[in-house]
Amino acid sequence: MSRLDRQSFLGPNSDAILADATIGFVGAGGGGSHAIQQSAHMGIGGYVNVDPDVIEDTNTNRLVGGTLADVVVSLPKVKIAERLIRGLQPHARIISVQDDWRAAVDDLKLCDVIVGAVDGFREREELERFSRRHLIPYIDIGMDVHDLGKNGFLVSGQVILSMPAGPCMRCCGFITDERLAQEAKRYGAAGSRPQVVWSNGVLASTAIGLMTQVLTPWYPDPPSFVFLDYDGNKGTVTPNPRMELLKNHVCPHHPADETGNPLFDIRKQRFAARPKAKAEPMSWWRRAWNWLSARPA
Amino acid sequence: MNIRFKIMSALVTAIRRDLQRPHLVAHERVGFISAGLASAHDNLLILARAYRPVPDHQYLRDSSVGAMISAEAIRAARQWAMDDRAAIFHVHSHGGRGIPRFSGIDVRENAKFVPNFISVAPHAVHGAIVLSETAAYGQVWLDGTSAQPFIATFSEVGIPIRTWRAA
């Protein structure tokens, strides 16, 4: 019996399909850390984890796998993700990029699916465009907390599966010029956005369900375009009405002739294997901290 | 260099369906796939965009091959390569299941006409694909002089994503 035995309903070859798959996780914070952890539980074999940030004290309310000890040493979020994965998939193929995702495009181009857990509409749109350009299904998750004045707060969010050629985040009205303009106006003055662990968990779980559906569906003809609304006050995840309306919609925003690199020229192209990542020696204080924190109280 | 060919499953399904249509004089149908290109480390990514069947009147009567197409058909595909800065792949089907292979005639004919595309769109690679009902196989011309490598990995992107190693 394998550790994945209880998910054998995903198909006779599901273990191999999941082990062969490489998933790009852009954002390894509140939403991304949940998604990465679940992927490791599921037996995903390849990971491209991208996040420029290190863990901070205020991340510990939601960053799955992050510890107070990691805060002390300012551990990069991608390193926390790597540790989380190795605990379940010791031989996983992991590429950790502590940088903006635009610094990891070659690694992301080789992914089977990209999961975006990023802030901001501009970044989402760029990530979706990048994914479509390389025929990669893109799954977007995001949450927000809205101040309702006397009525308290509304916790909400969305999960979108954006398949190349199908409806995109503009088609479904999630990304609009108005939203991009508002975001640009707020740029640099947004401050910390409220985030909580449970809503990120719901959204990431839903996203991993969609990712699994793309890799090894467990029922016939699952929808190829998914737009789900999360209402954290009601505790519901429901299909957005546009999901049905856009069922057979052909996206006008990302035409097929945008596929690939428009400036590609085989005569100028140099192909080189990915440079091997340098082994990072653990500092003496990190080793000491680990030793102290591992001691029985 | 590792060569990967990716195509949306809806597109390849439409191509298979189109190639199954009988033709008045030809034993089989052929068409062309246009593709965008990208690189990632030592990988060349061939990303299929669209398909154009060869119109009925551009087939020539020739019983020695499955399908013989006219110079006009080749000219139209060359124009497509130039206009769209696209990679062009000749496509036909052998039917059946599993990973197909080129026949001797395919190998001979591919070597004759694929270089036509390099002369009009040398920035791109071009080639030929043969389909079965469940898989595909293909070869790529990088330029006019180098060896012509085979496509190592195919992916049909849909639900589910299907990937197979062909060479």
Task: Walk me through what this model shows.
The complex is a heterodimer of chains A (297) and B (167). With 297 residues, chain A is α/β, with parallel strands linked by helices. Chain A has 10 helices and 8 strands. The longest helix of chain A is centred in the last third of the chain and has 19 residues. Chain B has 167 residues and is of the alpha/beta class. In chain B, 24% of the residues lie in helices and 37% in strands. Chain B has an 8-stranded mixed β-sheet with strand order 8-7-6-2-3-1-9-10. A two-stranded antiparallel sheet of chain B has the order 4-5. The two termini of chain B are 13 Å apart. Classes of the chains: A alpha/beta (297), B alpha/beta (167). Chains A and B meet through helix 5 and helix 8 of A and strand 1, strand 2 and strand 3 of B.
Range of strand content of chain B: 35-45%
**How helix-rich are the residues of chain A, as a percent range?**
25-40%
Give the SSE string of chain A.
HEHEHHEHEHEEHHEEHH
Number of helices of chain B: 4
Report the principal-axis shape of chain B.
globular
Radius of gyration of chain A using CA atoms only? 20 Å
Instruction: Give average pLDDT of chain B, whole number.
Output: 96
Tally of helical runs of chain A: 10
- Please report the total strand number of chain A as a whole number: 8
N-end to C-end Cα span of chain B? 13 Å
The helical percent of chain B reads 10-25%
What is the rounded Rg of chain B?
A: 15 Å
Count interface residues per chain for the largest interface.
Answer: A-B, 40 and 37 residues
The major pleated sheet of chain A works out as: 8 strands, mixed
Q: What spatial order of strands do you see in the largest sheet of chain A?
A: 3-2-1-4-5-6-7-8
Low-confidence stretches of chain A: none
